[in-house]
Design goal:
Shape of chain A: globular
Structural class of chain A: alpha/beta
CATH class of chain A: Alpha Beta
Largest sheet of chain A: 8 strands, parallel
Helix content of chain A: 25-40%
Strand content of chain A: 15-25%
Shape of chain B: globular
Order of helices and strands of chain B: HEEEEEEHEEHEHEEHEHEEEE
CATH superfamily of chain A: Aldolase class I
Number of helices of chain B: 6
CATH topology of chain A: TIM Barrel
Largest sheet of chain B: 7 strands, antiparallel
Strand order of the largest sheet of chain B: 4-3-7-1-2-6-5
Oligomer: heterodimer
Helix content of chain B: 10-25%
Distance between the termini of chain A: 26 Å
Strand order of the largest sheet of chain A: 3-16-15-10-9-8-7-4
Order of helices and strands of chain A: EEEEEEHEHEHEHEEEEEHEHEHHH
Radius of gyration of chain A: 18 Å
Largest interface: A-B, 45 and 42 residues
Number of helices of chain A: 9
């Protein structure tokens, strides 16, 4: 008789009973998916990145399907932090879901302002600091492409929020030296890293012969980017083996989730897969459990970064 | 408030494997019949279905949304759902190639439904292209409530008019327009709309079709007492409200504008509330 695999995991000092999470921006605040997924059964709901004020986002078209992927250009449409904290967080907690709140700002100060509002909220497990949304007006504002700006954002959030709530910094793969950016945000106070955000892309419409998306560029997600995610997680885990990684990028099966875990992810977020299959989160979590068991892992923790073991191990 | 939201978003939607029990060509379209069982009980005219396309190894990762044309409880198959599909892109072509007996993965019913009056009224149903699909099921329901149902259908060419024989029985009159004159009158459904509205004392217009048509109808009936319920069409990735790609600018009660998801706040919307001038743009920020 084999014992069930222990799927629990941690990100910083936050403990989660299961390793599959929603990906920020791909589950809104959970209400829409609740019909298809028992939210308390997954690791946590990572909510859509919220800003200080309500925001309309970018014009339509906001979406283009691409081979094994899609481009999105939403532009952080959302209700603003006050409405979000008043309506969405209490609802999620009522469902007994774990909650990771994702925040995004246009300035370093805005991140600190958001962190100040989160400090007094009880019941949330961690804060994801999204410094890598590609759908902002000014590419110069993608903090995660600038090592110094990345550090300053995280430093500001850490100083504001105090020492308890784990900070997960969400990084972009669109950089030359990802491990050095990762090291910078960890030095500035990040407890964990979310890897990867979408990859910047573009589709040109052959009827109009102009960029198809209203915002011209968009973030590429889906299975097409999974190898990029695996590489990014592998590189960063090799450089910073003690820093937990919430992995994401094109995961649509338990097999894909295990690949990210073997590369070094302690948890895996599922985003675009939920668009095509609203019950994907539970399917992936169940498949992952079976795959771990079949490979003789007693705990998920044993599999984290297993691809890095020495030759003869 | 919190509890109310819980029970309103996607509350009747189920994901299930269903069998194709019919697929026949009708003009430029395919009429596809699915055996969906008890799901038919919660389907209302205006709702849509999201279908996974391409099979397991497909590079198409997103579902395709189709208006539910009508549902029925047949003695032979149990609950069946009918779709009218134009084989246009790779997803709809795949669906149209599915033979009887094929299994497909659906999520349904999704979205808002046409509002059904409690009293008998004079209704005008306007369809553009395969936009007529959900209108025949709607006509049945309106007719059963004692409404008078007139219908206008338009398309570029006659082969793109979808008007099945059995559907014609549920309307009092049907007028067809084609842009090339190959069927019915030459022109568009908006041609003499206001005359028809006043002659037939229309109370409510129900429409489905291209956005330009919906916008034109809204403009024409602006300033009249006619209510215009339209089923909008905006490309969507998920159909269940999580991707935020299918948004439309809609006026709120306080006059401000919100970007609402056409999958969960639509597809059926009040035409007068949609800011047609702002579709494809970003509303002014009022803070």
């Amino acid at each position: 008789m084999t014992l069930p695999v222990d799927l629990s995991t941690t990100l910083g000092n936050a403990w989660f009973p299961a390793p599959i999470f929603t990906a920020s921006g791909c589950a809104s605040s959970g209400k829409e998916l609740a019909q298809f997924v028992p939210l308390k059964e997954i690791g946590a709901v990572v909510t859509k990145s919220v800003m200080s004020k309500p925001r309309h986002g970018r014009p339509t078209p906001r979406m283009a399907e691409t081979p094994s992927g899609m481009l999105n250009s939403i532009g952080l449409q959302g209700p603003g932090i006050d409405s979000f904290l008043a309506n969405d967080v209490p609802w999620l907690l009522e469902q007994k879901a774990r909650v990771i709140v994702s925040i995004a700002g246009e300035t370093i100060e805005e991140y600190s302002t958001l962190a100040r509002k989160l400090r007094s909220v009880s019941g949330i497990s961690a804060v994801e600091v999204n410094i890598s949304c590609p759908n902002v007006e000014n590419r110069g504002l993608v903090f995660a492409c600038d090592p110094d700006a990345s550090r300053r954002v995280i430093d500001g959030v850490r100083k504001t929020i105090g020492g308890d709530l784990p900070i997960i910094a969400k990084l972009s793969p669109d950089v030359t030296d990802l491990p050095s950016i990762a090291r910078g945000v960890v030095d500035a106070g990040a407890d964990a890293l979310a890897l990867i955000n979408t990859v910047l892309g573009m589709v040109i419409n052959l009827d109009t012969m102009r960029p198809h998306l209203g915002g011209k560029t968009g973030g590429l997600s889906g299975p097409a980017i999974r190898p990029v995610a695996v590489r990014a997680i592998y590189q960063v885990h090799a450089a910073l083996p003690k820093v937990p990684i919430l992995g994401m990028g094109g995961v649509s099966s338990g097999r894909d989730a295990l690949e990210l875990i073997l590369a070094g992810a302690s948890g895996v977020s599922v985003g675009t897969a939920s668009f095509g299959n609203p019950s994907a989160l539970m399917k992936i979590q169940n498949e992952l459990r079976d795959l771990l068991q079949a490979r003789g892992f007693a705990t998920l923790q044993q599999a984290v970064g297993f691809a890095h073991r020495e030759e003869n191990a | 408030m919190v509890g109310a939201l819980m029970t309103t978003i996607n509350r009747n939607a189920v994901q299930q494997q269903v069998t194709v029990v019919g697929n026949k060509r009708v003009g430029a379209y395919h009429q596809i019949l699915l055996n969906v069982g008890d799901v038919v009980k919660s389907c209302r005219p205006g709702n849509f279905v999201a279908i996974a396309v391409g099979g397991d190894s497909s590079r198409m990762i997103l579902r395709r949304a189709f208006a539910i044309s009508r549902v029925s409880e047949s003695s032979q198959y149990g609950g069946t759902m009918e779709l009218i599909v134009a084989p246009h892109g790779s997803g709809s072509k795949w669906l149209c190639s599915q033979v009887e007996g094929s299994e497909i993965d659906i999520v349904a019913p999704l979205g808002t439904a046409f509002g059904i009056p409690t009293e008998p009224i004079n209704a005008l149903l306007i369809g553009g292209g395969y936009g007529s699909a959900p209108l025949f099921g709607l006509a049945d329901v309106l007719k059963s409530r004692g409404c008078k149902v007139d219908m206008l259908l338009g398309a570029s060419v006659g082969s793109k008019i979808y008007a099945p024989m059995e559907g014609k029985r549920s309307v009092n009159s049907l007028k067809i327009y084609t842009e090339d004159g190959s069927m019915g009158e030459t022109g568009r459904v908006t041609e003499s709309l206001l005359d028809i509205v006043s002659q037939r004392q229309i109370d409510v217009i129900y429409s489905c079709g291209p956005m330009a048509m919906l916008s034109a109808i809204t403009k024409l009936v602006e300033g009249t007492d006619v209510i215009h319920q339209c089923a909008v069409e905006e490309s969507m990735a998920c159909g269940i409200g999580i991707c935020m790609t299918c948004v439309l600018p809609v006026t709120n009660e306080d006059g401000s504008t919100s970007m609402l998801r056409s999958c969960i706040d639509g597809p059926v919307m009040d035409g007068a509330h949609v800011r047609w001038d702002l579709v494809g743009k970003v509303p002014e920020v009022n803070q």
